[in-house]
Each structure stands twice: as C-alpha cells, then as structure tokens.
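task queued by scheduler; priority normal; single chain, no ligands, no partner chains; default sampling; output format set to structure tokens
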Amino acid sequence: MRKQILMICALLCSITLITGCKTNIARDEHTFPRRCFVGYNIDQYAAVVEARTGDSNYMYQFDVIRTRTVVSDLLNFLEASPQEWVDNTLIYYTFCQKSVRMYNGTPPNWAYRFALTHPTSATKIAVYENARLGREWRLRDENGDKVIVYRGSDNELLNWHPNCPLGLWDGNFKLHGKSYNIGDTRGLTVSQWIPVMASKVMVGTDFEKVYCGYELDDDPCYGYMPWHIPRPRAKLDHDHNPSTPGIPWQAYELQCKETNAANFRAFPKALSRKLIPQAQYDERVGYNQTRQQEMTDIYYECFAGAKFTGYTRVGSGPYLDYAWWWDCLPLAETGYHVYGKDGSIPPMLDRIQGLDFSLVEASVDKNWDKKRTDRHLRQTLSACLTSGNAYYAIVYQEDEAGMKFLRGDPGYCDLPPTIPELFFELGVATSDPFDIYDKMHPDKPLHARYFKRGYANFTVVCNPYKIDLLGVPAEDGGWFKGLWPHVQKIVISN
C-alpha cells in the first residue's frame, strides 16, 4: 500500500463492470466533499477492518478507489458488494512503473498467476527473466548496490536511462501447461517495454471490467536520487557496461528526461480508449519551474488533468511553508487536458466538465496529539476545497503503514484519523475558487469557495499562513454558513 490513506475527493462519476466510466457528468451532479480510498488490496483491507471493528461496510463509504488489487480478487470483491455502490464508484489501477520488488531476486509464484491482467506482476516477471539472460533492468550504483525507492524499502528502482541494457526475453511463459505472452522485451529498454506490456495486460482482458482507468506513478527520474542511493556520492551504473564509467545522479536525471517523456506519451496511446489516463504531479516538480513546464506539457498532451500534489506534513526546505505548498496546486492546473488535438486521445473528464482528478495527501505523524492532527487535516481539506482539487487524504508518515496495519503491527492497529469536516456535506460548488484579503496583510490572500446544499449557502476558507487572518486560525481552515463576507462561523470540530 503506497500509504494507508483515507481521502475525500471532488468527483462523482460512475463505472460499470462492462463499459467503464461515464463521461457526461454535469457539474451540479457531484457534491463536496467525497471520499476516496487508496490501498494495495482492498479486499484484504476490508476484511481486516471488519475483524477489528465489526464494520462490514467500511469500504462502501468511498466514491473512488485507487488500488493495485489483482483483477481476480477485485472481481470477487465487487461481486459480493452492493450493486449500487459498484455502479457509482470509480476504480483506478495505480501503477508504479519506476520500481519493482523482487523478493530476494526472484518474483513470487503468484506473479506468474496474475501477470496476464496485473501490470506490476508482469513487470516483475520481465525483470527477472531478463536478469536470467544476463540483461539487468534494475538500476545499480558503481559498487553494484541496489538503488531503492526509499531507505528501508525492498523496492528497487528500474533503469530509466536511454542506455539501459536491451531486453533478451521473448515475453513467453507457461502456466498450468499453457503458453502466454506479456510483451516481447527483445531490443527494448524497460521504459520502452512497459507500454508494450500494458497494451497486452490492460486491454481486452478482465482488467477493463474492473478498472475504469489507471494512474502512472510520478516522474521516475526526477528528484529521487539523493534519497535512493545507499552511498549518495556513488556514481550510477547506467548501462551495466564495465568498460564505461558510472555517472553522477544529477547527470542520470538529466539524461533520463527524454526517456521519461517518451514513456509517458506512449503509455496512454497504447491502451484502450475506455481507460482514463492519469499521472502524478509530484511536489518536487511543482517547486522546480523548468521541470514543471516540461511535465505540464506532457500532462496536457497525454493525461486527464490528474495531479498528485504530494505530502503536506511539515518537513524541510519549502515544506516549512504551507503557503508555498498551496501555491503549487494552481501550477498544476495548467496541465489539464480535454481533447487530444490529433484525435488519438479520447475526451477526458476534467474541470471544464466540473470534475478534477487531483489528490492531495495530508501526511499525519502518528505521534502528533489530536489537536495538532485535526488542525493539519482541516488545513489540507480546506486547501483542497478552495483550490478546485478537493481531494483529501489522511496518511501515516511511513510508506509501509498500510501493510503494517494489515499485519497488526504495534502502533498501526487503528484506522487512519479523521475529522468531522470530512463528513460535513457542503453540497455543490457554486463558484470557482477565489481569494479574499485581510487589509492588514495584503500579501497573504486567503483562499475561498462557495457551496450550496438545498437552500443553505456555505463558504470554506483556507489560511495557509503562520498567522491568524480574518477569523481563520493560522495553518487551518474555516467553515462558514452564508456567502462571504456575510457569514457565520460553523464549529464542526471541538
């Protein structure tokens, strides 16, 4: 599980097990906020929640599911679920194409069983089969050490460099006496092969029956290397050729830009027009304007305006300033795509049609007290609601928290924290996001948006700054009845 996540999201669309996602949703047909769940295996998660809490309907509160659940397990889960929920829930496959977990160098037996409809399993197999033939697709440093996704992880980064060794495996394997093919790797780098594999695994299979779209993980080549390399000053073995020297991680990132762009462009074009393409818009891209423009061009060309705006827990560098973090959200708005100019990309759900697939993670440290946690969650939720994104996520600090929850590790036995504002129905949005100003601080605009439920009007205001402004506490959000400035504050959280 990428993180143990509970989300609120801004969209209401529907899928069926046969036709995928509807694209004629009017703006006033969805309300705020909505909830979304992200996790590896939603069937296992639902079972664990029921065993610990007695709640057998936990998963049915969510309007959007982002998961890597294998197709057969997901089919079984959906068949046992209320049909109305199935018909009105978007389910996306999250594909981390930048890394692979090999379990001591070999893929588990289940990878071969699921590979025909599961891109992650198919990638494990291709990496393993090529390694057996002497072609290593995983990235290594000049000492031969693994380059991992983050410290303590078992996931190894794949080699996205243009000089990645070319595959030798023909893509064929046998299962229960039958032969199958998940994409010929011969003559291709791993980044070139992945779209080929996807066209076989995700198109014309049961994958399309349960998933309405997919999300590509963020830029595999940008902003990661200092975190991944066991020895940060070590050079990278970008071509697995002992006669050529390694290159610094800065050079690796620079030389991978075109490879990454080609992969991002090829992926949606290789797949069914029924599948909605999404891609993460990572916060590292947001604060690098040059890289932001490069990725925005790709998103506009190939994806459905989906953005993953990163984590909001206060850390180092720009993360110390919530105002900076909020400012990254509008940057991503330029990445929207509605219609492909060449006709190769189908019409996409987007904000022009009242929908936005973006999400934000509010990274909650499990050591925070309730007051600190609630304030952070309100700030993140209000930022989402007033930026036009309105996806909301509550996560623990560690990436492996979800798996620890499933195992019942100490300190991870509770569901993610929540706040009453998550369940306060605002109704439909009646305005685009706008700014309001405190005359004493004209350089610090607060962000706001109007909503309406029945005859009741509401205003949500986000204050990303470190000082109280217009009655909204520092780094917090405010919920008001009425239209600003003629409002009455609503106390939802105590």
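post-processing summary
- The two ends are 32 Å apart (CA to CA).
- The mean pLDDT is 75.
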